[in-house]
């Protein structure tokens, strides 16, 4: 008797699950022709959608402000586009790296020499801010597991491609407005800090 009740219950649950799945599928597929019926027989304008996507792509990597740009390491170009103090006592530095090395670039020598940083893989974990005036070097911030608060270049950067990056550091004293950003074998990039 218990076995029959169990089987009936399972069948009922299966029927409910299948019905719910079908209803969700129909609801998700519905409403696609509303735009077509309002405009007659014309299909939605693909060029308008494509052009807005192009605008987003072209606007995302570009920044009006370039604080510093340095070249080195066999054709790499590093650009710093922002260096802002945040209320929590840290500085966030952002920019781009362009790979003109002629091959895939994996940022192996940008991750730093410390054992703790090796687990970050190809990243900008070895970067630092240098306060020449205060004679201090600020290393990249890390979470409790030792992961850097920075960009990891997962899969590397292809030849000719540009990738965005960010890195967070402890903030230098309030009076410090200029620092040098240094990573790997790249020349130091002198940047000015702004309030976030």
TrEMBL record:
Region ranges (Disordered): 31-64
Compositional bias of kind Polar residues: 40-64
This protein's name: Lipoprotein
Organism: Streptomyces yaanensis
């Amino acid at each position: 008797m218990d076995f029959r009740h169990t089987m009936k219950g399972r069948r009922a649950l299966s029927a409910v699950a299948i019905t719910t799945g079908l209803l969700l599928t129909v609801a998700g597929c519905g409403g696609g022709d509303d735009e077509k019926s309002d405009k007659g027989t014309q299909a939605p304008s693909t060029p308008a959608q494509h052009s807005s996507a192009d605008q987003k792509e072209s606007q995302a990597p570009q920044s009006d402000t370039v604080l510093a740009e340095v070249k080195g390491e066999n054709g790499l170009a590093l650009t710093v586009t922002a260096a802002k103090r945040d209320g929590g006592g840290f500085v966030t530095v952002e920019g781009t790296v362009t790979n003109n090395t002629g091959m895939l670039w994996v940022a192996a020598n940008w991750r730093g020499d410390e054992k703790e940083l090796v687990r970050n893989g190809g990243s900008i974990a070895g970067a630092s801010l240098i306060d020449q005036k205060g004679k201090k070097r600020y290393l990249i911030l890390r979470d409790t597991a030792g992961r850097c608060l920075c960009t990891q270049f997962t899969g590397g950067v292809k030849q000719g491609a540009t990738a965005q990056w960010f890195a967070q550091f402890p903030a230098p004293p309030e009076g410090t407005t200029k620092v040098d950003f240094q990573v790997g074998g790249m020349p130091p990039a002198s940047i000015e800090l702004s309030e976030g």
